[in-house]
């Protein structure tokens, strides 16, 4: 919990009283690699903060899943559209490494909004972070080559990216695993 407190103090300048209310609602979960956090058809009930690990968000397909996001240490993660609307998710989330997350239930977040001075700000920032990440991804798909997308992912998370199977990286940047192999060979 110290890591999340430090991050929140730096990002939000949260008061001790607001932190006590907020932290009282957080629940720590530890998951092994390949644990499914959210299945398609389930309603997302949590906004989570990644203390340690890597989480993959993907649309399940019969042949090849479509990976559209990764969450790393100090990221917020959620099946956010399902979380906001409390309707079934069309995508899934799974851990790619052993993972520690701090989860906040939808109902508890509503309480935090009402009872703290900083709650709405934190909720807005979490939403903005998730939106900006999504927007960056969309613009990347529209404006950059697959090679540029791979290099950007590698630049943003150099230590962690090595822990992600290449088939997921290929899906994320929008190419086949064979095309990713050619990209990696070209840039090495």
From TrEMBL:
Q: What's the domain of life for this entry? A: Bacteria
Q: Which UniProt keywords apply?
A: Kinase, Transferase
Question: Which terms does the record give in the GO molecular function aspect?
Answer: kinase activity
Q: Which InterPro entries match?
A: cNMP-bd_dom (IPR000595), cNMP-bd_dom_sf (IPR018490), RmlC-like_jellyroll (IPR014710)
Please give the Gene3D superfamilies that the UniProt record associates with this protein.
Jelly Rolls (2.60.120.10)
Q: Residue limits of the Cyclic nucleotide-binding domain?
A: 30-114
Its name, as the record gives it, is cAMP-binding domain of CRP or a regulatory subunit of cAMP-dependent protein kinases
């Amino acid at each position: 919990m110290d890591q999340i407190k430090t991050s929140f103090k730096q990002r939000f300048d949260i008061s001790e009283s607001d932190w006590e209310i907020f932290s009282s609602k957080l629940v720590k979960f530890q998951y092994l690699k390949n644990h499914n956090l959210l299945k398609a058809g389930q309603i997302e009930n949590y906004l989570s903060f990644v203390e340690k690990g890597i989480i993959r968000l993907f649309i399940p397909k019969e042949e090849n899943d479509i990976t559209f996001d990764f969450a790393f240490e100090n990221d917020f993660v959620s099946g956010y559209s399902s979380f906001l609307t409390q309707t079934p998710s069309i995508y899934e989330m799974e851990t790619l490494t052993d993972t520690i997350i701090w989860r906040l239930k939808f109902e508890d977040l509503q309480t935090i909004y009402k009872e703290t001075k900083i709650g709405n700000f934190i909720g807005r920032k979490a939403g903005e972070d998730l939106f900006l990440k999504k927007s960056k991804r969309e613009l990347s798909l529209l404006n950059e080559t697959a090679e540029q997308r791979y290099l950007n992912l590698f630049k943003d998370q150099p230590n962690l990216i090595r822990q992600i199977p290449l088939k997921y990286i290929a899906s994320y940047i929008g190419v086949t695993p064979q095309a990713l192999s050619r990209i990696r060979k070209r840039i090495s």
